[in-house]
Amino acid sequence: MQDPILFLLTVLAILGTPGPTNTLLATSGAASGWRRSLRLLPAEAAGYFISILFLGLVLGPVVAASPLISITLRVAVGAYLILLALRLWRQGSVLHGEAVAIRPRQVFVTTLLNPKALIFALGVVPFGSPHSWAYMAGFMGVLVVVGMSWIMAGAGLGQVAARASSGPRIIPRIGAAAIGTFAALILASPFMS
């Protein structure tokens, strides 16, 4: 995809779609506030950067040639997301007024394994272009804007939830339910085709 406007709009649409990384960003915004959640954006950027480059330049051709590798990757991603959802759910049951700490490492690994990276690597980022570095720079710019939007949306919801007596406990549980749903969809997708 070498049209810069179409590229940016596609990146915006895909990054703006709810997913595991965006759920973590919103959960952190709701639980910890937008300022403390900003530290997660470099982890998201690094996760996407590494994943897209690795998938686009190294693993993409191998995955395209072997359906078994693709299924194995889906199972690994689904298992990781289930573990992450369970951790978030448990945080909701032990909270006593303290903020849920979404760590940069969690965002990095979740983004590294995010299925959206495969779409970017194999269908959006034009690795054959001599200006592929400019496309990746544009990608990172859109990523920061979209990631910040998810954090701000979460912070707004967190303020509303804080007024409710169960607010601090419900925030990580909503995030856990969303991530668990994404895990189930990823695990079920090979059987739905």
Structural description of this entry:
The protein is mainly α and 193 residues long. It has one domain (4-8, 26-192). The chain is 83% helix and 0% strand. It is built from 9 helices and no strands. The chain has helices at 4-16, 20-32, 34-37, 41-65, 67-94, 104-112, 115-124, 132-163, 167-192. Helix 2 packs antiparallel against helix 6 and helix 4 packs across helix 8. It is globular, with a radius of gyration of 17 Å. The two termini are 26 Å apart. The mean pLDDT is 83. Its main location: membrane. InterPro entries: LeuE-type. It is a multi-pass membrane protein. Keywords: Cell membrane, Membrane, Transmembrane, Transmembrane helix. The chain crosses the membrane at residues 6-26, 38-59, 65-86, 107-127, 133-158, 170-192.
Low-confidence parts lasting 5 or more residues at pLDDT below 50? none
Report the β-strand fraction as a percent range: under 5%
How far apart the termini lie comes to: 26 Å
Question: Mean pLDDT, as a whole number?
Answer: 83
The secondary-structure element order is HHHHHHHHH
The amount of helix comes to: over 70%
What is the number of helical segments per DSSP (H or I, 4+ residues)? 9
The description of the largest β-sheet is: none
> Shape, please?
globular
Q: Assembly state here? A: single chain
Classification by helices and strands: mainly alpha
